Amino acid sequence: MMRIWQSPFVRLVAYYVLLSVAVWLLIRAFPQIVDLFDAFQKLSPIHGSGGKKDALEQAASTPGVASLGSANLALITFFSMLGALALVLPVAWVYMITKQHRGYDQSVVQTVIVLPMTVAGTLILVQNSIALAFALGGIVAAIRFRNTLKDTKDVVYIYLALGVGLAAGVFAPVVSAVMSLMFNITVLSLWKLNVGNIYADQALAGRLRLGQAIVAPRAHTGEYQVIGDPELLRALAPQEFEKVAAASDRLRRYIEDRAKGKKRPFNSLLLVHTTALEPAQQAVEAVLDQLTKRWELREVLPAGDGKSTLEYLVRLAKDAPPGPLLDAMKARGAPHVIAAEYRSLRGLGND
Predict the structure, then answer these.
(1) Which of 16, 66, 240, 341 suits 53 as a labelling partner, its CA being 20 to 30 A distant?
(2) 187 HSE (CA, 13 A, CB side)
(3) Rounded CA separation 41/38 (Å)
(4) Distance CA 219, CA 208 (A)
(5) Which residue has the higher pLDDT, 12 or 64?
(6) pLDDT (tens digit, 9 = 90+) per residue, 4-34?
(7) Are strands 337-344 and 226-228 parallel, antiparallel or unpaired?
(8) How far, in Å, CA of 328 to CA of 305, rounded?
(9) How far is CA 310 from CA 284, 285, 296, in A?
(10) 82 within some domain
(11) Looking at residue 184, what is its pLDDT?
(12) Are residues 174 and 251 in the same domain?
């Protein structure tokens, strides 16, 4: 039962089912909410019929949603923004699930949550005032956004957030719910099936190069096994790369010497970057005791500014994925563990 609940698809469907039940109970308890929404839609020119000319004439002639009164208008705005929030929360959760190993951006998560509520509230404000709508368009055009998203999929999340906010602002809950559900199921399916990764079935063989020894893709997914800030690795100086290469060469010789012993050799290299050596080492070694067959601390390298790098030789169980090990290490070692790198040593010919 617990394994079924761990599935993101099951959790996603359960969320939408619970949300539907909550909405149904709310309508049964307060049926006047439906009447209020119907009155709002009748006064809104967006839900009217006809062409552009009819819509403009209707917007100019109708009393507008302000005639509902301040209390009713506040209630409508509240439910509109609340609906946008409820339907976009699973979108943010899907982003965090699918981006936890690569390309995660906290600002995108917060934007996806806040943007639909802002759009929904703004749409209620301007939909019955053409002059106000044009004024708002001019204000938005005057604002210059200089933020560039690193991943094209992040742009899709922003567009989805806009769509959910627009649907919530015009009180089309079915449209916003279908958009949210279909988007999340599609993204989870693409992530789970690893669609588009042509390197999924390729593994590294032969002597490792320096870049491969530092960060290299997993054999089955092609994703780089780096937990933490990728900028930390890009900021390494040439001298630090040489130290890593020298350590890798010593490690290769050590593994060759140990291959003749009774114990089975290590099959993994683990580099852990820390800001506080002692608490990070205790947390990391507790995780290693729990999730590995055996391990050995080979070297502690100073990294400057009080930071250190722990170099471990690790033996994982056969076919055991490194993802859970890295996740547990980062979770238990936070905030002292700022990055962790995993590299299989099977390409060195030791196992």
Answers:
(1) 66
(2) 23
(3) 5
(4) 14
(5) 12
(6) 777 889 999 999 999 999 999 998 888 888 7
(7) antiparallel
(8) 26
(9) 9, 11, 11
(10) yes
(11) 94
(12) no
The structural domain count of the chain equals 2
pLDDT tens, residue by residue, 157-199: 999 999 999 888 888 888 999 999 999 999 999 988 888 766 5
Buried b vs exposed e over 168-192: b needs ≥16 C-beta within 10 Å?
Answer: bbbbbbeebbebbbebbeebbeebe
Instruction: Note whether residue 121 is domain-resident.
Output: yes
Statement to judge: residues 34 and 179 lie in one domain: yes
CATH label of the domain that carries residue 264 = 3.30.70.1710
Residue 226, SS3 per DSSP: strand
For residue 264, how many other CB atoms are within 10 A of its CB? 13
Domain around 218: 210-348
Q: How confident is the model at residue 216 (pLDDT cuts 50, 70, 90)?
A: very low
The answer to whether 48 and 59 are in contact (CB under 8 A) is no
Question: How many C-beta atoms lie closer than 10 Å to residue 258's C-beta?
Answer: 16
pTM: 0.53
Task: Collapse the DSSP code of 338 into the 3-class scheme (helix H, G, I; strand E, B; otherwise coil) and give the result.
Answer: strand
User: Which residue type is seen at 59?
Assistant: A
Task: Read off the amino acid at residue 288.
Answer: L
Q: Is 1 or 172 the better-scoring residue by pLDDT?
A: 172
